[in-house]
Amino acid sequence: MSGKIGAEVWYLFHSGFAVKIGGRFLIFDYYNTTASGRLRGLEGGVVDPKELAGSRVTVFASHVHADHYVPSVLKWAREVPDIRYVLSFDIDASGAPGVVKAYPGQTYGVDGMTVRTLRSTDEGVAFIVEAEGIKIYHAGDLNWWHWEGEPDEENAAMGAAYKKEIDKLRGETFDLAFVPVDPRLGNEYLWGLDYFMKTVGATAVFPMHFGDDHSIFDRLDRDPAAKDYRNRLVRITRRGEKFAL
């Protein structure tokens, strides 16, 4: 996939990613501000505002949960003059400049980009971003959350709600997609990604929402359900890993 899309991607942690497209930086669901080992900055999975200097920066947060958003991102505006924020409606950013409050099922124009939203099956929104000719899907916590032990009717309602949102993208294609594959879901860990890939699809797909459990990539390598799109899944090995796509 190298060089086909025209983007650079850094894995920050969990559902957090930095995407560089030309002179833009897009930061998604960043929260872990502690660097990995001795590495610093993006290489250590941490955003240092100094690294963003000179770029047009947009920070996205899909919802208020502590593993998707940290309020300190609002302080970056002190060091990065060309910055704006697209924050889910459940995040209180009162008084912060350059904030777009994002509600489900809406379309926003943000610094020359088109940003659309879907309703999450958990909290907040998912993002569809079109920037510099590149189309990105970041799910946030929009997923097929099928929990073993939950009542059948609740799991069925969750599946229906997820399909309803993803079906809104039917017929579209994406360059980059960031989609949950939570290992806590057990045998159903792939259901959300599988439905997305078979309904919509993307050139390069970053599994996410796995925390420190990188064994999820071994499961994806072995899982026969993923055989038709396995070559489009990006294997992540560490925080701060950079991908040129």
Automatic annotation (TrEMBL):
The lineage of its organism: Bacteria, Bacillati, Bacillota, Clostridia, Eubacteriales. Pfam families: Lactamase_B_3. SUPFAM superfamilies: Metallo-hydrolase/oxidoreductase. This is L-ascorbate metabolism protein UlaG, beta-lactamase superfamily. InterPro entries: RibonucZ/Hydroxyglut_hydro.
